[in-house]
Hints:
InterPro entries: NAD(P)-bd_dom_sf, SDR_fam. This protein is of the alpha/beta class. Helices cover about 35% and strands about 10% of the residues. It has seven helices and seven strands. The chain has a seven-stranded parallel beta sheet, with helices on both faces. Helix 5 (about 180-200) links the parallel strand 5 (about 160-165) and strand 6. Helix 1 crosses helix 6 and helix 4 packs parallel to helix 5. The radius of gyration is 18 Å and the shape is globular.
Amino acid sequence: MTTAPLGGKVALVTGASRGVGRGVALGLGEAGATVYVTGRTLRGRHPEMPFLSGCLEETAAEVTALGGQGIPLVCDHRDDGQTQVVLETIRGEHGHLDILVNNVWGGYEGLHRWDERGQSWGAAFWQQPLSLWDEMFGAGVRAHYVTTSLAAPLLIARRGLVVNISFFAGQRHRGAENVPYFLAKNADDRMAQALANHFRPHGVTAVSLYPGLVRTEGVLLAPEGAFDFSNSESPQFVGRAVAHLAADGKRLERSGQTLVAAELGEEYGFTDVDGQRPRSIRSAFE
């Protein structure tokens, strides 16, 4: 991007210490937005996954270095009170919110452990811990609903944009997918459709957004050969998709839809940080 189409816009990206959330924050930052980033790791390493790098302070600093303004706020989105404090802070400092990206998610710990502890990710549902359901729905779907509900008045004031970060797994009905993950992502997609119905009269857009294979910190820890990175995306590419959608004056026409970052790249003409344009992996899940 050579311009700052989101200058003066205020965004909230949940779960932005690392991974896709961090990339979304960076994509919005390079477009000139003020970006509030939330998560549990203000500095240092994730308490439950110390092998993963990334923290809120680093994300916020990178957002600012790219031309935006990064503001870190510690928040465990499983606690509604903490989420409310985040929205009250944004209200007090800006009085409105233009972009909400619901990215925070729970239950990924097993997926990112490339040892015997992570092998249960693809196991039959009765062989998985029951807590996985609560992690996916509590720190994922419910957190997205609560954050959007609390943010609604601020978004309505600016005819804003809500993006639920989801994935193709929510549409896949066959194979050995992780059952709680499949159901939770499907719920996130349906939520975006329902939110769109409520928001449309107020000019607020609500969508689900699917990344492709993203080179997150966890994915890059995978054993050699576990992934084919020839058609992969940086986390920041997902952020560029959100930024272009937010800058689109006709985005309300898409409200309720499930969008794909790579397909938005083709449509809007943006590339990844390496100059490449990833291809959509939709066909692999159809």
